[in-house]
Amino acid sequence: MPRTPPTGADAELIALLAERGVKVSAYQLERWRAQGLLPRNPYRSLGRGRGRAAHLTPEIIATAELLGRTSRQGRKNADLTELVKGMSAQNPAVVRAACITGLTDLAHQTGAGPEDDAQDRLDAAAQLAGTQRHFGGMHNELRALVAEHGLDVDDIPELPPTERPALLELALRLFSSGRDEVGLDEIADALGAAWNWPQDTVEEMQRSLARSEIEALNRGEDPWDDLPPVHNAHSLIAAVQDCADTELLHTAVTVTTTSSYQMMATLGSLAGLAQPTLPLAVSPEATKTMLRHPIWLTWGQSNSQAGAFSNASQAFAIAVGLRTPGFIDRLADYRDFLRGLLRLDELAIRLQPNAASTPPPTPGM
């Protein structure tokens, strides 16, 4: 039996997502709503006895795009489904279980399982790092496109190209084994390999780290204390298990909504630089502002790739947020910045049915 073609707000949503390269069907929209993943379109009065009509909101568009990009035809993304469902229902137990599942899956992928040894972790880190897009690629591409539009990009840093994913491999090893199997000298090796430093620069950094390590040990301190915190599998799972319900929900919602807005802003920047009339296109000037933002440089560009919407990636980002004091507040500010960049509040007004054609009230009535 043929399905009824979508109409109204759903048809508008399907068309809008299609323009952004995300193909969804009316059946998928209804299935996500039945699962509690996608809010139903709210209704608004058309006024003067003309009834009501459903309309879209920016949050519905962002959620549908997130679901569309992480779903595969014929295969249910069960873990991400549970995470989104838990947040929609404000159920911390479901969110906690989904995050722990994602982190446990990532631990097994990186050789952090109880049956894995040091060589397993080395091999897994090298294999996973080799499959990832190099850090800085999207940033440098957008920077070049902004320059092609005649804007000055001298105040936007150009990130050094990475010849090999050495830094990611080191991060994966730290995640799987903590600090037990990684020496401080390997930090210099990874930086030198990633950015093609001269060998004498690498050796000087190794000597500096060695001196710092000896001095810290002589003081009875941990040499790693002066470095950024190491997020390994056990510490991240413990962070999710031990945090308060309200903190977990707030962190999860902040991370996932900001990730979704970041994907929309990245695609919107590409659209705005190529075809400014597309929906949610971001102007070159606004793109330049994003490329200068510190959270884009340290977090956003990594979370603008399709792989960032896996359950494991979202669980990792949520757990890191729980372990990094003050970061979630800064991320929430960045989310508001992205909303302004995408003009979502203006979009919400335009999506109101007959917003522009509603006649003004008659004086005296």
Explained architecture:
The protein is mostly helical. Helices cover 61% and strands 2% of the residues. Helix 5 (92-109) packs antiparallel against helix 11 (233-242), helix 7 (137-148) runs antiparallel to helix 13 (284-291) and helix 12 (245-274) packs across helix 15. It is globular and about 80 Å long.
Task: Report the end-to-end length measured between terminal Cα atoms.
Answer: 51 Å
Overall pLDDT metric: 79
Task: Please count the beta strands (DSSP E, at least 2 residues each).
Answer: 2
Largest sheet: 2 strands, antiparallel
Helix/strand-derived category reads: mainly alpha
Strand percentage, roughly?
Answer: under 5%
Could you give the order of strands across the largest sheet?
1-2
| Shape assignment | globular
Number of helices: 17
- What fraction, in percent, of the residue positions are helical? 55-70%
Radius of gyration: 24 Å
User: What's the SSE pattern?
Assistant: HHEEHHHHHHHHHHHHHHH
Low-confidence stretches: 73-78, 360-365
